[in-house]
Amino acid sequence: MIEKNYQPADIEARMSVVWEDSLAFKAGRPDRRDAVPFTIVIPPPNVTGSLHMGHALNNTLQDILCRFERMRGRDVLWQPGTDHAGIATQMVVERQLMERQQPGRREMGRAKFLERVWQWKAESGDTIINQLKRLGASCDWSRERFTMDEGLSKAVVKVFVELHREGLIYKDKRLVNWDTKLLTAISDLEVQQTEVKGHLWYLRYPIEGKTFSPEDPSTFIVVATTRPETMLGDTGVAVHPEDERYQKLVGKNVILPLVGRKIKIVADDYSDPEKGSGAVKVTPAHDFNDFEVGNRHGLRRISVIDREGCLDLVDNEDYLHELPEGASQFAEEFHKVDRFAARKRIVERLESFGFVERIEPHTHMVPHGDRSGTVIEPYLTDQWYVDAKTLAKPAIAAVRSGETSFVPKNWEKTYFDWMENIQPWCISRQLWWGHQIPAWYGPDGKVFVAETEEEAISHALGYYVEQEVITAEQGREMALDRNKREGFITRDEDVLDTWFSSALWPFSTLGWPEDAPEVQRYYPTNALVTGFDIIFFWVARMMMMGLHFMKEVPFSTVYIHALVRDEKGAKMSKSKGNVIDPLNLIDEYGADALRFTLAAMAAQGRDIKLATSRVEGYRNFATKLWNASRFAEMNHCAVPDGFEPAKAKETLNRWIAHESAHTTREVTEAIEAYRFNDAAGAIYRFVWNVYCDWYVELAKPVLLGPDSPAKDETRAMVAWARDEILKLLHPFMPFITEELWEVTAKRDGLLALAPWPLKRAEPTPEQLAMLAATTGTTDPLVSPAWVMPIFDHADFTDPAAEAEIGWVIDLVTQIRSVRAEMNIPPATLTALVLAGASAETRERAPRWTDVIKRMARLSEISFADHAPDGAVQLLVRGEVAALPLKGVIDVAAERTRLDKEIGKADADIKRAESKLANEKFVANAAEEVVEEEREKREAALARKAKLLEALERLKQAS
């Protein structure tokens, strides 16, 4: 029995237990042993994470695909898991230690600190997994993985060792993004560019051989910089090759102010003649662009800032090299001074010697660590790198050939732009939490990369015996006695970038490198659902690693979803105070309402503007379905055994079967094409408009009338259509549909495992040949929908039933619209004249007279050859229906009202267009503000069009 009120919280808790107990989501179920697999790997959320709106969108869309394919008979594996999130997790635990006034990680030592992190992971690491379950995610939770599980760690080590053996992993001294607070290199993804109001300093660099005078421009060259503190590491000045001002100076030297070192003037396209002075200082060890300029011209790299962001000049051989006598005193004065304090003092020193020409206010982007908040320092250091350029080539080719396709397709350009200009990938991090790099160093710094320490020792002993550093006898003794080799080799303390392990996610989670049957069955995966912000950092790297180690792309489709913004279109952020917590929405409106909202708004390539009112609206939609199902139950609607909707005799019942088949096809095609919003829109219209508003309403006279064969058939059809709705809606709103299925459908088994209403037909040999030629596969289930739209055409259609019921609906709808436009009170009944009606209309109208009169508030329905004078004419499916309104409404007053409303709409249009025509407004206003004005204009234009249409109708009645 259906409860009177819809209570999402009660249903969700109950259904979660039902699914878990029945192992509904387990891959490899016995009944699916011979089914075609469908695999999705979850983008692993950070173990430190909590469900945010991006997670809610991403996992809702994945769940729709998985539930859809599971109902289509596939053996679905939705692989869940979490990421160890090196920096984030280490920060959480270190913060805890500090808050509890306990020893820090350095005092604890590596082993004890890692023990504490694992303890924290055990206590809090499942938070987001439990939150995903609340959302309704139908993952195979029995297969949950963690990037630092033993099996996944083994995969990481094997990949590192093999890539190193192939020369694709190496150690190099290059610039990295250095976090001076966390004391580690970080990836570009962890860097936030922040607009900062700073200054541009124009500095005079004396030309060698000339007596410097601030008043004589011929004695110096002016360089512009935002970072005067790094000038101590300058090794060149760059000018554009075609800048006539400096052509005669190219190849000459300038004297570095304060330091006295000679540095060369070089010609390089990097210098922009239109910016600043047209000349730029080159500091290869402290700027990524300067690093490349320095490489092109063979300039030295002098690092003058240390790991903590302080000047490092004393005992700095690179800095002290070639310094004139006396410059070392300056080094001692500024040694270990913070970079920003040093900036101020260096500028003061430069001003005192006349080296500062001018200082201008300058707003520019400054990189900050997304977790530490500190300014990121380009830092020259030894790190481990992957030769990403080599690995990228097959990954580029795979997307170009269509082996992997992006949806929407425009994201392929983003992928290509980055992959074709890819730089070496820095994979080492100066942390303790993560996969420790499997590299050991001998006493002379020689590197030994191996999967185990024993293997590294073996390589090292063999090498040093061969080099005669130790004797063969010593080597044998050390191999046999651990104590004798203690400290002979030391392991690299660094850990790997988190993205390195997550790049292996599609196959490491299946058991690779072991010969696991799951690898053969579920790799490659079918679809990846992710955000555009990690195309470079995760999608691209999975492509590279999958192709290199598995010789196949890791997924055939990459669906890129947009951002979830607030209702005004602003990006959510804590600082703005506009963050919407999905868990709060679930608490208030239920997970189904939130899921449907996100799906209904997930148009390809368009950000979601999320308003709480939309979630509330879809909660009302769930309530509408609940009440309709309860009405059906109260009227004893049930599907009898052997019922066949195609054999229904009543026109109304054949119509709902027709509409159901049409909607099923529409929803199926939309999900296959990743048009989630279209699929949600189709099922919403069918449930609310077709089933609830029309079918149930039109069926009420039969259901409430005397017993008859028509009543029996209608009861069966009401229940059958409800069951079809539950199936179609299940991927979007799994909790309420599973509950109603269990309570009302009285079927054996879960809705989650029930068959989808529309099956694919067996393809013909010709279709299979076309499929193979297009995609390289003959499996229609894994082909893109646009290649193989082969459906079972046994689904029901009845054009005659649609024509009749459609005519009733269109007629009532248009009459209601006119009554609303003309402000006709509900109690006022109007007449209807069917003018010049066809024989078909004359034959069907009497059958529906009572229904039309009741639903359209009519006094009578009559026929005539022509529409009477003063009647508003409606065109309904090509025929005229007239409403004689003379005397019913005050035409003059209505015209005045409509004219006034049109005037308001014109004013709104003019106001919005005035703002949008203002270039300064469009350029300076926030993106969401500009978009809001566009929406206001479009809404006003649409309102005006409807008002003009109403005014035109009013003229007919005068």
UniProtKB/TrEMBL annotation:
Motif 'HIGH' region per UniProt: ranges: 45-55
Location of the Methionyl/Valyl/Leucyl/Isoleucyl-tRNA synthetase anticodon-binding domain: 653-828
Aminoacyl-tRNA synthetase class Ia domain ranges (all copies): 18-610
Motif 'KMSKS' region positions after renumbering to this chain: 571-575
Enzyme class, first EC level, given as a word: ligase
Keywords: Aminoacyl-tRNA synthetase, ATP-binding, Coiled coil, Cytoplasm, Ligase, Nucleotide-binding, Protein biosynthesis
Residues involved in ATP binding: 574
Domain Valyl-tRNA synthetase tRNA-binding arm: 890-955
InterPro entries in alphabetical order: aa-tRNA-synth_I_CS, aa-tRNA-synth_Ia, Anticodon_Ia_Val, M/V/L/I-tRNA-synth_anticd-bd, Rossmann-like_a/b/a_fold, tRNA-bd_arm, tRNAsynth_Ia_anticodon-bd, Val-tRNA_synth_C_sf
GO terms of biological process kind: valyl-tRNA aminoacylation
Location in the cell: Cytoplasm
TM helices/strands, residue ranges: none
EC number: 6.1.1.9
Classification via HAMAP family: Val_tRNA_synth_type1 (MF_02004)
Family: Belongs to the class-I aminoacyl-tRNA synthetase family. ValS type 1 subfamily.
Listed name of the protein: Valine--tRNA ligase
